[in-house]
Specification:
Length: about 230
């Protein structure tokens, strides 16, 4: 009974240790972390000047702004999330990490860190986006639920694909080529759900698609991570 109770705690502690290690590495490399937020800020500024609240008709504003928001969030995340496994290969810690813990623990820890990073990006980008484009959101709670649900799926897929491309020569190009077709269903559903949430209506169908995507992506990553990362 005692061993059964301690096992989940031991697993969670190892997952948390991997996430803490990644956070510590990123905080030491402030330039790499700052580049993610700098990209988001630059994209937001350019979009606000190019589109602006006046340049979009009122009836189309929710759709246009929602699409632009997820484009910015996706590419901002793509500058930071794919480094989850890449930095292990670059710093020479990948072999040691393989020996001290299982591939699924590493995947869970890195996904947890990437999800936190995505939420940090969204927490900065969303208020700035609403302010610069004068975007009125009728249901902030529903919008937050959409961001959390879609952000988790984006983090899972990005983390798993990072393991696939970690030892490739053209990591960034390969990541974009592989990730785009896999994330199209996620992004389209996220845009639809964001539009409905901004109008105050419950995005039931889009949210169900996002939850199903999160579940399928998590199961696929769990089953395939050993083949993708372990020698």
């Amino acid at each position: 009974m005692g061993e059964g109770e301690n096992r989940p705690r031991g697993t969670l502690s190892r997952v948390w240790a991997v996430a803490q290690k990644d956070a510590a590495q990123e905080l030491r490399r402030r330039i790499a972390l700052a580049s993610v937020f700098f990209f988001a800020a630059t994209a937001l500024t350019l979009v606000s000047f190019a589109v602006g609240p006046i340049g979009v008709p009122a009836e189309s504003r929710a759709a246009v702004i929602s699409a632009l928001l997820w484009i910015i969030l996706f590419f901002s995340a793509a500058t930071g999330l794919p480094r989850a496994y890449v930095r292990e290969e670059e710093t020479g810690t990948a072999l040691a990490l393989r020996r001290v813990t299982s591939a699924t623990i590493v995947l869970a820890g890195k996904t947890f860190f990437n999800f936190g990073l995505f939420l940090a990006i969204a927490a900065v980008a969303l208020p700035a986006f609403a302010l610069l484009l004068e975007w009125q959101v009728d249901s902030p709670a529903l919008l937050a639920l959409v961001l959390i649900t879609a952000g988790f799926g984006l983090s899972v897929v990005s983390t798993f694909l990072s393991a696939l491309v970690a030892r490739a020569s053209q990591k960034n190009v390969l990541f974009v080529v592989i990730s785009f077709p896999l994330m199209v269903p996620l992004l389209l559903s996220a845009i639809t759900a964001t539009i409905e949430a901004s109008r105050g209506s419950l995005p039931g169908t889009a949210l169900r698609v996002l939850v199903a995507y999160d579940g399928a992506a998590s199961c696929a990553a769990y089953l395939l991570i050993r083949a993708a990362w372990e020698d």
